[in-house]
Amino acid sequence: MTRPGLLVTPAEAARILGVTPSTVWRWVTAGRMPTPVFSERRRMRFARMDVEALLKAS
Questions:
Q1: Of the candidates 47, 58, 56, 44, which has an alpha carbon nearest to the alpha carbon of residue 4?
Q2: What is the DSSP letter of 3?
Q3: Which of 8, 20, 38, 52 is the most exposed place for a label (fewest CB within 10 A)?
Q4: pLDDT tens digits, residue range 8-24?
């Protein structure tokens, strides 16, 4: 189980990556974003370390 704080929302991922939330959604659809995790309420989240790795790779 992932601990709180290790997951970020699409809006938080956008802020980390310096893009808009719309861009994050486009990247999810295109397969450019890391695999999302879904919370018990079916809300999409990303592992913070995956988002930060994407930032370093770009």
A1: 47
A2: P
A3: 38
A4: 999 999 999 999 999 99
Q: Which domains does the chain have, with CATH numbers?
A: 7-57 (1.10.1660.10)
**Cβ burial, residue 56 (10 Å; 0-12/13-18/19+):** exposed
Dist. CA 33–CA 3, nearest whole Å: 21
Token code pair at residue 37: 């995790």
Structure tokens at 47: 């592992």
- Count Cβ neighbours within 10 Å for each residue of 1-15 and write b for 16 or more, e otherwise: eeeeeebbebebbbe
